[in-house]
């Protein structure tokens, strides 16, 4: 039984500028396997957003999060599907998921 | 729990449309997106066969998708348009030089001729030069005024009779809100028009412009670019990291997340807004120096250029009524514009946000 959730996170549309210009990250998120009570049992997108904000975001968090959720104007796709049809914040991440953040707030 | 497409009922849905809240599959989304723009073009009577159309191309998401869609629809529906790409190089090192590479890629990918015109060639000043002279405070005002004219001049040079720009529904709703907040009734009346510079005043010395994306949501433009794998350049201008219509944009995005029809609702409100008969609106004429369209005797760009060359850069930024005062002070003091002028710059803050949208 694996006690890590492995996912891929990608940033596009200017979102990468807030993450040190990194466009792709492979994350291994700790999952509670019974012995370690500190890790969450499961990860939702909301948890991932918080985790990215706390651990990976390099500058201007206000361009990424707003009142504990994603800033309006940032699009999220999970495995190339709009998170708006997947339950948004409450979507439960599965092993191998690819989560893409695209900013629409950056100009040309 | 995969959700099926609301239109074809067969394929898996990949996006929720902000306009209708329908969940669509990729193919149905492409179909609706392209068809709605075609309908906007037909209903708005935007083109006629034989038009030579300059596509204002910045390398950003909107103009990249616009170039792609214009070429696609022109061929699919036989508009018989002669399409060309027109880019303006403001002369901002590390910003525009990168995005121009994207435009050059568009030129190759879509096989459309490209012309790049620089501020330096047109006005004798690049934005880097201007910032060196005036600092980073009001440079967006210069950039916005110069860009508007530059597209016209470029289109005339290329023999184009029409310019299309990538302004989308979100941009237009933002402009409406900003004009409401500033009480600018003249602009409020003009900014909702899908086509400007034609019909009302044939003597206007400008090339007519239109906005095929007037009813197209930004979210869908970005999603379309993503699923079609269209490459665009996205960054913030190095001179204006936070000036991109900041607060109004956030406010609008908040509204959209509560009720996504808000963007189209605001556009509709702007369209039906009527100005009372008795209200005096500025009359547009031609600039005495460059004959570009202007509501003043001398257009804003010429005033700004005069200011730059005389070392009085505030000339183009403050209200025209204050210009005489600055000139008088400059003469009596026998020196360049100093701190005294700076108390008049309050208007420039809003101008920053108006103009800094390519």
Automatic annotation (TrEMBL), chain A:
GO biological process: one example: tRNA wobble uridine modification
Record-listed cross-link Glycyl lysine isopeptide (Gly-Lys) (interchain with K-? in acceptor proteins), residues: 108
GO cellular component terms listed in the entry, alphabetical order: cytosol
Keyword Ribonucleoprotein among UniProt keywords: no
Pfam entry (one): Urm1
Keyword Protein biosynthesis: no
Location in or out of the cell: Cytoplasm
Chief localisation class: cytoplasm
InterPro entries to which the protein is assigned, alphabetical: Beta-grasp_dom_sf, Mopterin_synth/thiamin_S_b, Urm1
Residues modified as 1-thioglycine: 108
Function: Acts as a sulfur carrier required for 2-thiolation of mcm(5)S(2)U at tRNA wobble positions of cytosolic tRNA(Lys), tRNA(Glu) and tRNA(Gln). Serves as sulfur donor in tRNA 2-thiolation reaction by being thiocarboxylated (-COSH) at its C-terminus by the MOCS3/UBA4 homolog. The sulfur is then transferred to tRNA to form 2-thiolation of mcm(5)S(2)U. Also acts as a ubiquitin-like protein (UBL) that is covalently conjugated via an isopeptide bond to lysine residues of target proteins.
Protein name listed in UniProt: Ubiquitin-related modifier 1 homolog
Organism: Tetranychus urticae
Lineage, top ranks: Eukaryota, Metazoa, Ecdysozoa, Arthropoda, Chelicerata
Gene: 107369960
Automatic annotation (TrEMBL), chain B:
Location of the protein in the cell: Cytoplasm
Residue ranges of domain tRNA(Ile)-lysidine/2-thiocytidine synthase N-terminal in the record: 52-247
One GO cellular component, as annotated: cytosolic tRNA wobble base thiouridylase complex
An annotated GO BP: tRNA wobble position uridine thiolation
Protein residues bound to ATP: 56-58, 62, 88, 166, 171
E.C. designation(s): 2.7.7.-
Chief location category: cytoplasm
Function: Plays a central role in 2-thiolation of mcm(5)S(2)U at tRNA wobble positions of tRNA(Lys), tRNA(Glu) and tRNA(Gln). Directly binds tRNAs and probably acts by catalyzing adenylation of tRNAs, an intermediate required for 2-thiolation. It is unclear whether it acts as a sulfurtransferase that transfers sulfur from thiocarboxylated URM1 onto the uridine of tRNAs at wobble position.
Protein family membership: Belongs to the TtcA family. CTU1/NCS6/ATPBD3 subfamily.
Protein name listed in UniProt: Cytoplasmic tRNA 2-thiolation protein 1
Organism: Tetranychus urticae
High-level lineage: Eukaryota, Metazoa, Ecdysozoa, Arthropoda, Chelicerata
Gene: 107369137
